[in-house]
Design a protein that fits this description.
It is built from 17 helices and 22 strands. The protein has 556 residues and is α/β, with parallel strands linked by helices.
């Protein structure tokens, strides 16, 4: 991966977006319906795009919101809809548009008072708390966010009554209906914003204090306070920014907000690896400023704009690799949550580190390995059969101390505070604890690379069978598994994973670019990892060729 000369440096003025232009384009631009890239498209985290290329405009939000209203009616969901937004420039106008449609459809809608921002996990928790013990009049939610994407982007996602990211059957329904409305437009109900904000169905409430006060039921706040830790947080200009002072105040903690600025240009950021401004708390380039402060705090942490991702900075290791922190967090939780039932499983995505497998196995617990995407953890977190769900891209959530559901979407703030709890209770920071894991289980070497692939090759990769892998060895080791479905739930992984005793690789196509991604890990050394990656590319290339040959035979 080429590293930009700007990576890790303060964002230069020429990279900054013009929020006024973004808002103008949002309202005035009309999507080209003949261009697939400008239609509504729900990926793993809702619809994303930018007004600058016609993929996130008022027309899109009108259509998607009406489609969600139609979907709610089809499912008889008639409870309140909790709606949150992050700090991206077009999140504000998108919320106004959505409210105009929701009010016209007489949907009871609850938003943060005083035009405030709301993290993704806060919406998830609010849905679950409202729906607890209910069988009807169920609540659901909308979060307006493109996550850690660049400042010019917008995003819009739907969370049904289980509180988590909508499953593919739901997103397909909403996407199809939204595109019908985008083309036709006559089925969209709407009232002016001035009427919508004052409608009987629109309620402005405080989401902050209920979430903050409930944190004691998922995190040992007394232990953090008792240890007298000096903590630091950089909200990266995101929706969690207003939450940290109430956390300090209610729990009497010492969390310094290293950067309290909220600015839709995100001009305070250091530039990511590719020369873009990207608020990714797992990127050492985006996190350069907080990493520089690592010795000022016992633990420091950050979140992305909608606060569903976390980044953990320790004096011992700087910014922790997300895989490393997940392994430490899982070991700690499994040994410090006595009210969690022994039979509950730990969830991980199949491209997360096998260090997690070793930690979970050593403790005699069950592992549930699922495809990429947090939605796969939702049912287990919802019913308590999964105590933890985590993905390699720094997103995770876990159960309350009593073993009941907390959130079914990723929760960055609880992963931040868990790092503080771990340090308080163990007396070592999470970076030091990861070193103990490598001493016990070995040091994993992990990478992710991108390789070119045509749309046809990407389609074939998604449909590969295990038999398409002709070899029985990978980097000198016997292959013990060839997977195209996830072991934890049998769901298709949309690609291929090959496993040996000492390493593995997984290959899956990108949803947005003409590339496929190879994830790989070795428990031997860097040379072994390099061999796995090289052979992985050969195996995938050969499998795609054989798949093409098989398709040609079937045609003839």
């Amino acid at each position: 991966m080429a590293i930009s000369p700007l990576a890790g440096k303060p964002a230069p003025k020429e990279l900054l977006v013009d929020p006024s232009r973004l808002e103008r384009e949002y309202y005035e631009r009309r999507p080209d319906l003949g261009n697939r890239n400008q239609l509504v498209s729900f990926g793993t985290s809702g619809h994303r795009g930018s007004p600058l290329n016609g993929s996130f405009t008022e027309a899109h939000i009108l259509a998607i919101t009406q489609a969600i209203c139609d979907y709610r009616r089809s499912q008889s969901y008639d409870g309140p809809l909790f709606m949150g937004k992050d700090t991206h420039a077009v999140s504000e106008p998108a919320q106004r548009t959505a409210l105009e449609v929701l009010a016209a459809n007489e949907v009871e809608t609850i938003i943060q008072k005083d035009n405030g921002f709301t993290p993704t996990p806060v919406i998830s928790r609010a849905i679950l708390v409202y729906n607890r013990d209910r069988k009807d009049h169920l609540a659901d939610g909308i979060v307006i966010t493109p996550s850690h994407n660049p400042p010019a982007d917008g995003g819009f996602k739907y969370n049904p009554p289980n509180g988590g990211p909508a499953d593919t059957d739901v997103t397909r329904w909403v996407e199809r209906r939204a595109n019908e409305l985008l083309r036709d437009g006559t089925g969209i109900k709407r009232v002016p914003f001035a009427a919508a904000i004052k409608a009987d169905t629109t309620h402005q409430e405080d989401f902050v204090l209920p979430y903050v006060q409930d944190l004691r039921n998922v995190i040992d706040m007394d232990a953090i306070r008792g240890a007298g830790l000096k903590l630091g947080v950089d909200p990266l200009g995101g929706a969690a920014a207003p939450y940290w002072e109430p956390i300090n105040s209610i729990y009497h903690l010492d969390i310094a907000v290293a950067n309290p600025t909220i600015d839709p240009t995100f001009s305070f950021m250091t530039v990511d690896h590719d020369g873009q401004i990207r608020m990714d708390p797992s990127s050492p380039y985006a996190m350069a400023r907080l990493v520089d402060l690592k010795n000022q705090y016992d633990v420091a942490f950050a979140n992305d704009p909608d606060s569903d991702r976390h980044g953990i900075v320790t004096p011992s290791s700087g910014l922790m690799n997300p895989n490393h922190y997940l392994a430490v967090a899982i070991r700690y939780l499994l040994t410090h949550r006595p009210n969690w039932p022994a039979h509950v499983a730990v969830g991980k995505t199949l491209v997360s580190s096998s260090m997690i497998d070793r930690v979970v196995g050593k403790l005699g617990r069950s592992l549930c390995e699922v495809p990429v995407g947090f939605k796969w953890f939702v049912p287990g977190l919802f019913d308590g059969s999964l105590c933890f769900g985590g993905e390699e891209s720094a997103g995770a959530s876990f159960l309350r101390k009593d073993g009941t559901v907390w959130t079914t979407d990723k929760d960055g703030p609880i992963m931040d505070l868990l790092a503080a709890e771990i340090s308080a209770c163990i007396g070592k920071d999470p970076g030091e604890l990861y070193q103990e894991l490598t001493a016990e289980f070995g040091t994993p070497y992990y990478t992710r690379i991108d390789a070119p692939a045509t749309p046809d090759q990407k389609a074939r990769l998604q449909k590969l069978s295990p038999e398409a892998v002709a070899t029985d060895k990978l980097a000198g080791d016997l292959i013990i598994a060839k997977l195209t479905a996830a072991p934890g739930n049998g769901a298709p992984i949309g690609g291929l994973k090959v496993v040996t005793e000492n390493g593995w690789f997984a290959a899956r196509p990108s949803g947005t670019e003409n590339i496929y991604k190879i994830y790989a890990e070795s428990f031997k050394d860097q040379g072994h990892l390099d061999a796995i990656v090289e052979e992985a590319q050969e195996i995938v290339s050969d499998a795609l060729k054989s798949g093409s040959a098989l398709q040609e035979q079937e045609v003839h």
